[in-house]
Amino acid sequence: MEEIKINTEFIKLDSFLKWCGAASLGSEAKIYILEGLVKVNGEIATQRGKKLRAGDLVEFQDTTYKII
């Protein structure tokens, strides 16, 4: 599990995928999300703008990211 620190109250899911390095472009992140390849707290997330906060878990490509 990788811990990723954010500097704001929340971060949107597509921005988070770029922030942690899982996606290099916003359009790439959008495709991953719309194809159902990303889970937030164990559930498939299809909303690019889903707000993530400290304590949330994001799963993508066999890696789990914990937001701190």
Can you give a write-up of this model?
There is one protein chain. The model has no long low-confidence stretch (mean pLDDT 96). β6 (57-60) and β7 form a beta hairpin. The relative contact order is 0.30. α1 (13-19) crosses α2 (26-34). This protein is globular. 24% of the residues lie in helices and 31% in strands. The strands form 2 sheets. Strands 1-7-6-3-4 form a 5-stranded mixed beta sheet, with no helix packed on it. It has 68 residues and is of the alpha+beta class. The chain has one domain: RNA-binding S4 domain (Structural Genomics Hypothetical 15.5 Kd Protein In mrcA-pckA Intergenic Region, Chain A, Roll), CATH 3.10.290. It has helices at residues 13-19, 26-34, and strands at 2-4, 11-12, 38-40, 43-44, 51-52, 57-60, 63-67. Keywords: RNA-binding. This is S4 domain-containing protein YaaA. It comes from Clostridium simiarum. Pfam families: S4_2.
Topology summary:
Elements: E1 2-4, E2 11-12, H1 13-19, H2 26-34, E3 38-40, E4 43-44, E5 51-52, E6 57-60, E7 63-67
Protein name: S4 domain-containing protein YaaA
Keywords: RNA-binding
Organism: Clostridium simiarum
Termini Cα gap: 12 Å
Which residue ranges are poorly predicted, with pLDDT under 50 across at least 5 consecutive positions? none
Q: How many H/I helices?
A: 2
Mean pLDDT: 96
Shape: globular
Number of extended strands: 7
Helix content: 10-25%
Summarize the biggest pleated sheet.
5 strands, mixed
Q: According to CATH, what is the class?
A: Alpha Beta
Organism: Clostridium simiarum
Protein name: S4 domain-containing protein YaaA
Pfam family, one: S4_2
InterPro entries: RNA-bd_S4-rel_YaaA (IPR014330)
